[in-house]
Amino acid sequence: MKVLLMKDVYKLGRAGDIKKVADGFGRNFLIPQGLAVLATEGALKQVQKIKSQAEIRRSAQNNELKGLADQIQDVTLVFAAKAGETGKLYGSITTQDVATALTEKVRFEVKRQQVDTQPIRTLGEFTAHVRLTMDLVPEIKIIVHREGESVETITGHTEEPVAKKAEKQEEPAPATEEKAE
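User: That's the sequence. What structure does it adopt?
Assistant: Structure tokens below.
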């Protein structure tokens, strides 16, 4: 099915684009949400009008959120989590956890759908992208350390101290062999 996008759709296209999508996606999601209309001859005549309106709306939104994007760009989130000896977490740091922590830090509501990262399941330092608009995608830094460890080893350095501690704990004790007589 061919549709004309009325609004920007993440990972599909910008307003005014004509895209071929699966019938169910168009019929059950895009059209009812008002994100697209069927690409008929009458709708195709309005492409330029839709593109110009979308450009105005997009630039206004970008100007409004530019300051917030600059503020988010410098953010570093630190999470303390329980982890095994190998550095693997018991559980994970999800996009919801990142969004909640970011909302508290910058005082602007960030939804979990805006945080673009996979769930974090190990100790270390990670980066995540926050989609404010299609054009504004600031990058944040996430540091995950073991509960009970001092945070100063992480804030002043990279993840190496954490990795070294995990490696030391992984080394097995030398085994003594007993001879059976």
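Residues 69-170 form a domain with the Ribosomal Protein L9; domain 2 fold (CATH 3.10.430.100).
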